[in-house]
């Protein structure tokens, strides 16, 4: 009988570039390709270890002198929305939710462009055209969904009863939760806190599906644009190789000593793969990353 051994994924490190969250710092990312029959298992396993997906790549910050970026997730069963979050839920209660296969539309792209031009005009995605947008949505080797939120346009130019798209989230369905890969919304409705509402709605969705976690991407203490994530109840962060309750967010707002950050080889060696084998040493091929969310 012939036996074949699983092929361990190769890990690479990006070249240093300016950090998009903390001025004066640089960032590097550890990444690996997400391809083949084992893509879903690899995504499930590495997501539990702080990795995030961008198209067919899994990545995690691996900065040489900083460990500020912390992967964050909500414990669904323990989450209880506070007064502000309940108000946001009531304000958006009239929105219609529709989940579909990951397929990009012109309506989504128009909303995406308004969102970027209003909130991230100088960001790394500012020049993304409709073809690159379609690749971001559609190039997924795992179980993903596009979740749209719309309102009924009863008075606008689209006619009575028409549907007007106001928010979109690309979501991965993991074996233990929902992972918000990327979301965007109508900037003219900033007061409605649609970004927060989508997270709250994903908590409800995960509860309905019996999934224990909602993965939010990275929380960066000291970054104003990330502060909203620390306001969610039952939040935990991936720190020193395990998930811990966030407790007081202020205790994380410290720059670690450079010698306390493990070298890349040690970080990779500590990664557990679906086969339960250590990942081994990373390759030396630098690359670039397309999504820092």
Question: How many helical stretches?
Answer: 6
What is the spatial order of strands in the main beta sheet? 8-9-10-11-12-7-13-14
Rg of Cα set: 19 Å
Annotated CATH homologous superfamily of the domain at 70-255: Gcn5-related N-acetyltransferase (GNAT)
Main sheet specs:
8 strands, mixed
Helix content: 10-25%
What is the average per-residue confidence, as pLDDT, rounded to a whole number?
87
Q: How does the helix and strand content classify structurally?
A: alpha+beta
How does CATH name the architecture of the domain at 70-255? 3-Layer(aba) Sandwich
Number of strands: 14
Write the layout of secondary structure elements.
Blueprint: E1 11-13, E2 17-18, E3 26-27, E4 29-33, H1 39-47, E5 52-54, E6 57-61, E7 70-75, H2 83-91, E8 96-100, H3 106-119, H4 130-138, E9 144-153, E10 162-173, E11 177-185, H5 194-209, E12 213-219, E13 235-239, E14 242-245, H6 264-269
Parallel strand pairs: 11-12
Antiparallel strand pairs: 1-4, 2-3, 4-6, 5-6, 7-12, 7-13, 8-9, 9-10, 10-11, 13-14
Give an overview of the whole structure:
The chain has 293 residues and is α+β, with helices and mostly antiparallel strands. It has a domain at 70-255: Gcn5-related N-acetyltransferase (GNAT) (Aminopeptidase), CATH 3.40.630. The protein is 22% helix and 27% strand. It is built from 6 helices and 14 strands. The chain has helices spanning 39-47, 83-91, 106-119, 130-138, 194-209, 264-269; strands at 11-13, 17-18, 26-27, 29-33, 52-54, 57-61, 70-75, 96-100, 144-153, 162-173, 177-185, 213-219, 235-239, 242-245. The strands form 3 sheets. An 8-stranded mixed β-sheet has the order 8-9-10-11-12-7-13-14, with helices on both faces. Strand 10 and strand 11 (177-185) form a beta hairpin. The chain is globular. Residues 1-5 and 283-293 have low confidence and may be disordered.
